Write the structure tokens for this entry.
Amino acid sequence: QPHLVESGGGLVQAGGSLRLSCTASGTIFPLNSMGWYRQTPGKQRELVASITRLYNTHLADSVKGRFIISRDNDKNTVSLQMNSLKPADTGVYYCASEEGITTTPSDYWGQGIQVTVSS
């Protein structure tokens, strides 16, 4: 089964930017859908953004106009450019993917990476 590894998290001040990347390895079939979720203490994991192999994107209302999701099909990577970050964006961000075409990929998961936005 595919192995997903996230990178790029960290601590940033409000208004700043971070770029998350996720690389998938061990794939047999194309990962048609890839995306990012985040989870904060006491809340359910929520979808932040997703993208299909044909570059159709879906973003949560809370990040529209600030976050950009992109992917490189040849390298099996998905990235999340996060701009104008707010303290409310703080959380553990998870990369997810699946072979099917969906706005909510959820078959395969990375281990998660912390993003902290200070006020």
Q: What stands out?
A: The CA atoms of residues 14 and 81 lie 15 Å apart. DSSP finds no helices and eleven strands in the chain.
